[in-house]
Every structure is written in structure tokens, then in C-alpha cells.
């Protein structure tokens, strides 16, 4: 499957033939090989099928994206709520896409000359695996960020104490404690700080000291927005039990 059908990935030849371009998110469904090995392919929330955002693409996913692209030809925007808002929250866009929320134009009877805002029409594909995590860090962040991976309306991180309790159940051979959880999270924040991460990860005393919970929220939100953490990672919580 192409995995990222949208207006910006359709090229019209001099002969007037529309062709697909940019196969960087292409995904081989049901096979061992893929152009994006190990992790799910990228996607563009405005045009992605729900199962793509949830990390489980299938052949029919391209049909959804094609329909969303054809919808754009009429009102000049994709069929998503707030799709034309250039400053829309990436997490909100992904959550709505994962839930299959659509907002069809009132009049789809004739083609519109309005091509919509360029910034949203050429929205970037969400690139997977942007931020490196080792296996222990991924499991820890999945445990603490389960609500984010379920695309809840207003997610908050699991507390360090509850996270340590669940990790002790999942990995009884490892001595997870609240202090160890705190230490590992701070190590990830320090490593990603200053690397272009989209949200603040360290305390800024000049702007007031945010709580560690707020910084963990920023970390989880950015990892989900970038598709570094994806819904299939929730399988770690189920499959790593004793």
C-alpha cells in the first residue's frame, strides 16, 4: 500500500495523467518486507485512515486516503474537523484521525475553485521513529503513556508509583521502583533536550518552574505526535507479562 495518498503526493504529467509520487511511507501489508522496516509507516493525519494512525495499516487504508483526497477537490480541504487550521495541535489531529472523525462539506455537488490554504494542503507526513529509544525506555514510556496511545481527550501520564507497580508485574526479574522510573524518565528528557524536540523537556527557571508531571506530559505528547510511540506499542504491556 502507498500509505500516504494526499494532494501533495499526486503529480499530473504533461499528458494530463495523474500519478502517485513519494513512496517513502509505502508499506507491504501481510508480508515480511516493508520500505519502512521495524516500525509503522508515516502518515498525514488529514488524509489517513484510522487504522493507519493506530499503526495497523491494511489494503483498504489507501481507499480511505484516496476518498479524502477526492473530497479535497470539492471544498478545498480534507474531510477533517479543523483541517484548515494552520496551528492545529498535532496530537488533536492524530486523535481525530485515529477515531475516524470526518467532517464532510455541505455541498459536494460541484468542484470548487478554492484550493484551500497551502500550509494545510501541503501538510507534512508524520515521520516515524524520529526520536531514539532503547527497549527499556520504550516499555517504560508505553506504561506511563497508555492514555496518549489510546488518544484520550485530555491524557495525563500514569504516576511514577503506578508505573513502577505495573513494570514490576511485567518484568518481575527487574527491580523497578518509583525512584528508578523517575531517574530513567529524567535521563530521556535530558538526552532529547536541545535536539529539536517540539515541547520543553527541562525546567526553565526564567519562565517559572514547571512540574515534572508537565515535562513528562510534554515528552509523551511529542513522542506520540512524531509516531515514535504508536498504538501497537501497547502490545508490550500485554505481551511482556510473566
Task: List strands and helices in order, with pairings.
Blueprint: E1 10-12, E2 18-20, H1 50-53, H2 61-72, H3 90-98, H4 118-121, H5 135-144, H6 146-149, H7 160-170, H8 178-192, H9 212-225, H10 235-239
Antiparallel strand pairs: 1-2
The mean pLDDT is 78
Helix/strand structural class: mainly alpha
- Specify the biggest β-sheet: 2 strands, antiparallel
The end-to-end distance, rounded to whole angstroms, is 36 Å
Range of helix content: 25-40%
Total count of strands? 2
Summarize the structure.
Helices cover 36% and strands 2% of the residues.
Description:
There is one protein chain. The protein has 10 helices and 2 strands; from the N terminus they run ββαααααααααα. With 242 residues, the chain is mainly α. Strands 1-2 form a two-stranded antiparallel ribbon. A hairpin with a 5-residue loop joins strand 1 and strand 2 (18-20). Helix 5 (135-144) packs across helix 7 (160-170) and helix 7 (160-170) packs across helix 8.
Task: Sum up the structure in keywords.
mainly alpha; 10 helices; two-stranded antiparallel ribbon; 242 residues; elongated
Amino acid at each position: 500500500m502507498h500509505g500516504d495518498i494526499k494532494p501533495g503526493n499526486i503529480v499530473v504529467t504533461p499528458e494530463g495523467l495523474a500519478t502517485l509520487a513519494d513512496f517513502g511511507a509505502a508499506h507491504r501489508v501481510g508480508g515480511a518486507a516493508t520500505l519502512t522496516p521495524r516500525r509503522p509507516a508515516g502518515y498525514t493525519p488529514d488524509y489517513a485512515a484510522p487504522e493507519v494512525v493506530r499503526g495497523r495499516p491494511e489494503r483498504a487504508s489507501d481507499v480511505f486516503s484516496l476518498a479524502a483526497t477526492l473530497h479535497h477537490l470539492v471544498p478545498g480541504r480534507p474531510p477533517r474537523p479543523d483541517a484548515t487550521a494552520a496551528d492545529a495541535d498535532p496530537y488533536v489531529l492524530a486523535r481525530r484521525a485515529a477515531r475516524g472523525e470526518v467532517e464532510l462539506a455541505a455541498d459536494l455537488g460541484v468542484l470548487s475553485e478554492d484550493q484551500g490554504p497551502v500550509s494545510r494542503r501541503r501538510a507534512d507526513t508524520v515521520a516515524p521513529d524520529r526520536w531514539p529509544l532503547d527497549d527499556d525506555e520504550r516499555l517504560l514510556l508505553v506504561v506511563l503513556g497508555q492514555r496518549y496511545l489510546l488518544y484520550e481527550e485530555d491524557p495525563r501520564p500514569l504516576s511514577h508509583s503506578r508505573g513502577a507497580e505495573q513494570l514490576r508485574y511485567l518484568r518481575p526479574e527487574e527491580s523497578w521502583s518509583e525512584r528508578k522510573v523517575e531517574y530513567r524518565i529524567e535521563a530521556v528528557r535530558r538526552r532529547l533536550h536541545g535536539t529539536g524536540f517540539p515541547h520543553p523537556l527541562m525546567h526553565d527557571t526564567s519562565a517559572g518552574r514547571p512540574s515534572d508531571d508537565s515535562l513528562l506530559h510534554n515528552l509523551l505528547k511529542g513522542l506520540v505526535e512524531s509516531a515514535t510511540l504508536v498504538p501497537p506499542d501497547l502490545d508490550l504491556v500485554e505481551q511482556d507479562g510473566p
